[in-house]
# Entry
Amino acid sequence: MEFEGKAVVVVGGTSGINRGIAEAFAAGGARVAVASRSEQKVADTVAALQAAGAAEAHGAAFDVRDAGAVVEGLAGFHRAMGDFDVLVSGAAGNFPALTAEMSVNAFRTVVEIDLMGTVHVMKAAHGFLRKPGASIVNISAPQAYLPYEGQAHVCAAKAGVDQITRTLALEWGREGVRINSVVPGFIEGTEGADRLAPTEEAKAGVISDIPLGRLGRAEDVAGMCLFLASEMGAYVSGQVIAVDGALYQRGSGRLGSMIGEMLRGAKG
# Structure
C-alpha cells in the first residue's frame, strides 16, 4: 500500500479515529490535508502530520454544516495539492438523549453535522476528485443499522450516510470513483468509548462482549481505510465495512442498552 505523493484529504481529521487515519496516510508519505472547526486542533494536527512523515501537510478550519465554507476549504486544498486521490469524510456529532426528551433543534443538529455535512463534503469534493482513480471513505457508525437507545438522531443520520455511500458508488463509479463506508467498533481512547465505559469494570464488560477479546485501536480503522484507498481495494465499492472485532454480530447488545440505562439512571 504505497501512498507516496498521493493527495489525501481527511475532513474531521484533527481528533480521535480520524486523526489516526490522517497520521497513517502521512506515515505512508502522502500529502495530507485535514479540516475541522477548531483552528488550534488543525494547527496541532498539521504539525503532527509533518512529524509523522507527510510529504506535505495542510489544514483548514471550517464547519461541515456550512456548504459554502466546505466548498472554500476544499478548493483551497485543491489549489495546494491538485486532484484528490483519497477523501475521508469523518466529521460527526453525537450526544446521548432519549427521543421524547430531545428538542427538535437538538435532533436537527446531529442530522446537519452527520448527514448534511456528508452531503456538503461529497458535493464540494466531486469536482476535485481524480477521475478515474479516487477513493472515498465515509466514516459511519453501527447506529446506521443497529438501534441504540438514546441515539435515534444518530441512527437516522448515519443510515442516511450509508445510503449516500451506496448511491454515489453507482453514480460516480461511472467516473472511476470508488466510495465505501467504514464502521468503527469500540475504539479505545475515543471520547465515545470513554463516555460509555468510564471505569475499568465497565471496560472489562465491553471487552467480554467482543469476540476478538480486545478493544479496537485507531490504527485498526486506519488500516481498513488504507486498504480501501490502495490498489488492493481497487474493485471494492459501495460497501459498508465494520472494523469491530465481530462485536456487531451480536447486534447492539449491551452497548445498545447502556446509553438508555445511563440516561434513565441520571433522571432517577
Observations:
- The longest strand covers residues 178-184.
- The CA atoms of residues 234 and 259 lie 38 Å apart.
- The chain has one domain: 7-267.
